[in-house]
Amino acid sequence: MVAGEGVHMDATVGRFASRAEAEMARQLLDDAGIPARIRTDDAGAMHPELGQVGAMHGITLVVFEEDRAEAQEFLVHPADVPADWEEPDRSRAGTRLLAFLVLVLVFGVGLFLELSTVVDRLF
């Protein structure tokens, strides 16, 4: 028997509401060294509504049967968080956004005034 012949990925390890979610889970497994594949019946992505969870098959993530337990465990607990990891400080995010918008406005007004001066000189 040729390697891989007659062996199919048919052990379902997850069902997803969108292809994007399934792709993220597949990438997690791939990064962990677990081969996985997305199975969906959405007419080659032409009709994504056919692959929804409520549809006949939904969007499923499949692995080899021998990888099922490891894949399911990994999807529940993808990785340990490093001990020195801290949640980013987002308390000033609004202030930074406001400062950015003010800069865009100032430069936008300056550019508009410069362009209007150039147009006035031409005509």
Report on this model:
42% of the residues lie in helices and 12% in strands. The chain is an alpha+beta fold and 123 residues long. It has a three-stranded antiparallel sheet with strand order 1-3-2, with helices on one face. The longest helix is centred in the C-terminal third of the chain and has 30 residues, at 93-122. The chain is elongated and about 75 Å long. It starts with 10 loop residues before the first strand and ends with a helix. The mean pLDDT is 78.
Helical content (DSSP H or I, runs of 4+): 40-55%
Helix-strand category: alpha+beta
From the alpha carbons, calculate the radius of gyration and give it in angstroms.
Answer: 25 Å
The average pLDDT value, as a whole number, equals: 78
CATH architecture of the largest domain: 2-Layer Sandwich
Largest sheet: 3 strands, antiparallel
Strand proportion? 5-15%
CATH topology of the largest domain: Alpha-Beta Plaits
Q: Which parts are unreliable, with pLDDT below 50 for 5 consecutive residues or more?
A: none
Tell me the strand order in the biggest sheet.
Answer: 1-3-2
Provide a quick synopsis of the model.
The chain is an alpha+beta fold. The chain folds into two domains: 11-76, Alpha-Beta Plaits (2-Layer Sandwich), CATH 3.30.70; 94-123.
Helices, strands, pairings?
Elements lengths: L10 E6 L2 H13 L4 E4 L19 E5 L4 H9 L16 H30 L1
Antiparallel strand pairs: 1-3, 2-3
Overview features:
single chain, 123 residues, alpha+beta, Alpha-Beta Plaits, 3-stranded antiparallel beta sheet, 3 helices, elongated
